[in-house]
Amino acid sequence: MKGKLEPSVRQALVEEGKSLKEGLVALEEDLVHLTDKLQQEAQCIPNTTHPDAPLGSEENSVLRRMVGSPREFSFAVKDHLQLGKELDLFDFDAASEVSGSKFYYLKNEAVLLEMGLINWALAEVSKRGFTPLITPEIVRSSVVEKCGFQPRGQNTQVYSIEGSDQCLIGTAEIPVGGIHMDSILSEPSLPLKYVAYSHCFRTEAGAAGTATRGLYRVHQFSKVEMFVFCRPEDSDRYHEELIGIEEDLFTSLGLHFKTLDMATGDLGAPTYRKFDVEAWMPGLDRYGEISSASNCTDYQSRRLGIRYRPSPSDPSPASSKKGKGSTPAQFVHTLNATACAVPRMIVCLLENFQQEDGSVVIPEPLRPFMGGLHVIPPTSN
Amino acid sequence: MISSGYLGGTTLHTLTLAPSLCRSAFLRSPLKTLTLALVTNPHRHHPMLPMPSILRAFSSPAVPTASLATQEGKVTSKPQWKAAIDFKWIRDNKDVVAANIKNRNSSADLELVLELYEKFLSLQKEVERLRAERNIVANKMKGKLEPSVRQALVEEGKSLKEGLVALEEDLVHLTDKLQQEAQCIPNTTHPDAPLGSEENSVLRRMVGSPREFSFAVKDHLQLGKELDLFDFDAASEVSGSKFYYLKNEAVLLEMGLINWALAEVSKRGFTPLITPEIVRSSVVEKCGFQPRGQNTQVYSIEGSDQCLIGTAEIPVGGIHMDSILSEPSLPLKYVAYSHCFRTEAGAAGTATRGLYRVHQFSKVEMFVFCRPEDSDRYHEELIGIEEDLFTSLGLHFKTLDMATGDLGAPTYRKFDVEAWMPGLDRYGEISSASNCTDYQSRRLGIRYRPSPSDPSPASSKKGKGSTPAQFVHTLNATACAVPRMIVCLLENFQQEDGSVVIPEPLRPFMGGLHVIPPTSN
Q1: Contact status of B166 with chain A (Cβ, < 8 Å)
Q2: A181:B234 CB<8 A
Q3: pTM of the full predicted structure?
Q4: Is residue A6 annotated as a catalytic residue, yes or no?
Q5: Which of the residues A145, A192, B228, B244 has an alpha carbon 20 to 30 A from that of B316?
């Protein structure tokens, strides 16, 4: 219609344009709805699975490594709750009144224990080249979803803030994953390795059964978390590195534990492969999970929008410019692993290192982080 | 790394509350609170208020946990808990109370409270009279009676019962309304507290002087950027404004400050605590905060009656809720570490930059439960500890006796510490020490049983002859509010080369770090 036209020809074109436009608007609307529906359905598809991951339900998980053996006690073993009561370390009753069940106060040497564990874990992992972080504990619910959690599902683990789109984090994995949201990282900057300390909040809705006693399952706890952003070809290697760090940490404290390659039935949607560490807890007379190391490959990065620009193989200036000729950005891989989940560690330390006289010995690596404390003495009642 | 401070634990002798040992819930608070200067007190409580122009929303406590529409269509709130308010004392000292209310700019309606109290008393008398009559009728019916006499008595009994039920209902409503109105009355004021608005606060002490810089001073945000210590931008995307990540040496700084503060205060005889950060909203109210008021500082959890704490004062105050403590166990002194969450709704103005005003921060808080006669003394002790701590770090600061215009409803007297922040080119509040006397304890239900003066076994038994329980006094004071301390440390100890020197007392708690070096960019 740009040139000079006969009025009747122009009119016919105008009509045709209008009818095309109407058709287009309708189709574009359909496209939006379809895209939304496609997203909604496709987001339910879980991450792929590592070829070596064991198939089946949790019992099919495979033992990767066993360190130490259950300590033999020459006296009656107490569980952490009883030790806590006798040593005046916790108060669950007062917390129940003030906050509700599964909340607690830590007191006296338990405060030193928590601070010591956090300080020790941060120091140990920092010196292995991880950047220390302290993170927000309130985040937008969209970030929670992009990490692969479901803030508003039934039996959700996530606390929401009233009157806002914000939630409390259940793990520092969320704010750390979010730190590079909607970014393109340069290849030389990878891997980015963070060790993050935060409090974590979990509703534990739907957690029934006996494994809820005392510090084993609580609504609020401190955790030191490792997080890695890396190139896809490197994620298996960093998964091994992360589980190696965990095993070193727990071995150094003298814990007896086993590392499991978790079966597919136990993997959450984001997880390509997961290694769990279960430590021996004599008071519970069984193994309890103290840590988890997951490789999420590009599941989270595709949702959080985190990519990197691979360095071009041709080093000439022309090809290192953005735009035509530069390599397209790829999605990074993300991994997360627990360095130290404080309450479960406290359970392990109290129950494993209790003495016949009621005292508890502090493992050597923690002592410098606890003002030199060697032992929690029995209280003089 | 914490030096082993207070080991061995404190055995707490808590007695479970014996029912109806103290028939009167309205115990007299001791003589301490009788003398009142004419003071002003606006309607707010703000533990961390830095700027004079910022109005806080920690108003007087309300009781709105459940709202009911009245017959007249007005929405009233049914109190879910009762404060043990001394109505008789208020009535007997109404002029003094009225003056205090006026001078603290409270909107409490004293006339209404007194009116409701009188109605309550006469209604209560009426109910008791009816109950007595009903008992008489019941007793009369015990013997052998003529059928017609019995029938008359039955009718009388029934009519008395109906009347009683109606009156008892009225009594409940009246009690609720009385509570609602009376809870608005602010705490009494220390006679020495300065009158007036915040500018009338009086300087108690000045330590040090502003450092002279031979180079251009940077503020903490610029230092943080250059030393790669914070990230506000990423946090803004992930969480929203006024959130932040701490990185690298700032993580060491935060951990160092917390560990140091816990160690320093523990060794002064305080029991260390780590507390829940989610609490029932009723506990928040009982401490004198208003979780659901307009411009509230309090985050609420969706689908629950729980809130996030804005200070460890709340879970620590709650730790002895509804208890009777023994006198020998007092004072109970706690040093508590927690994260704190504040909406900062209504905080306008320039004092919001960077770490100065944030939604989430770490704080080490001191809390004391003591006998009434001791609270002034412990108030001095708490401010003394704070001054020692800040002096030891080499900070320049001033301690202020806050004027009545700045006292929140629970506060009898408040001392604030303001430290010099060269990057902001002014003083900023880093800590606050408040004596709440029995305001919180009357709401939290925390009493103690004074040891009897007569040591004979007979008088030390509970029941007849033992001394009635009294309400404790509570005090709270900031040992260390981490972000503001970080502002102080970075801005005051920056060097010309861009590095920051770590004060000596913190170094053992930061792995021996002496200085944050300038980044090699």
Answers
A1: no
A2: yes
A3: 0.87
A4: no
A5: B244
